[in-house]
Design brief:
about 200 residues; 4 strands; two-stranded antiparallel sheet; mainly alpha; two-stranded parallel ribbon; 8 helices
Length: about 200
């Protein structure tokens, strides 16, 4: 539990407050909007992460790390087979400081969110939503969830920043698929890195 100093009983928001929050959301969508990429390009990037969901609802895909987590694996000292597996991991953030891994998972989530709000992609919204929701489910399944230590999550902002904006852009789709609350809880949990004095009770 993270103590943000909020009262135990938070008043129900007024319609004016709700409208104000929505206007902020729309302003952020406009600020981060705009994309020149094609649907085929977005799908190619999505396919590189190997995400799929079977008829029983089991989701699989390539293992996701943050760049800062890599040091814990001591890649220079891994056995050959383990190193081969390690090299197939993908990174949430925008760069790989340790090698040549696939990176940009969160960036793709943002780009899908951008495309979803572009008139040029109006006929592709269902496909865009499907990719985004699968990426969200996979990320949560990989341990990027409320209460998870991830062994280490320092420098989280560099890796996770685009997840926050993309979730705001795709909030309606997340809500329609029962993923808004777990996403919100995960993003709030990982925001603890930015709380003054780290005074959370674990």
């Amino acid at each position: 539990v993270i103590d943000f100093g909020l009262p135990d009983n938070i008043p129900v928001p007024t319609q004016t407050e709700l409208d104000g929050a929505e206007s902020v959301r729309q302003a952020l969508i406009t600020e981060f909007g705009g994309i020149s990429e094609s649907l085929a390009s977005l799908e190619n990037r999505f396919n590189a992460f190997g995400i799929s969901k079977d008829s029983h609802g089991n989701i699989t895909g390539r293992h996701i790390l943050t760049d800062k987590q890599q040091v814990l694996y001591q890649p220079a000292h891994l056995a050959s087979k383990d190193k081969t597996d390690f090299d197939q991991y993908v990174l949430l953030g925008d760069a790989d400081s340790k090698g040549n891994k696939q990176f940009g998972y969160a960036q793709l989530m943002l780009d899908i969110g951008k495309a979803y709000h572009e008139p040029a992609f109006s006929a592709d919204k269902a496909r865009l939503a499907d990719m985004y929701l699968l990426m969200t489910e996979h990320l949560l399944d990989q341990g990027f969830a409320d209460g998870s230590a991830l062994v280490t999550s320092h420098h989280w902002g560099y890796s996770g920043r685009w997840w926050y904006i993309s979730a705001l852009m795709m909030a309606d789709e997340l809500a329609s698929n029962q993923l808004l609350q777990p996403t919100y809880q995960a993003l709030l949990w990982f925001s603890r890195e930015f709380k003054d004095s780290f005074d959370m009770a674990l």
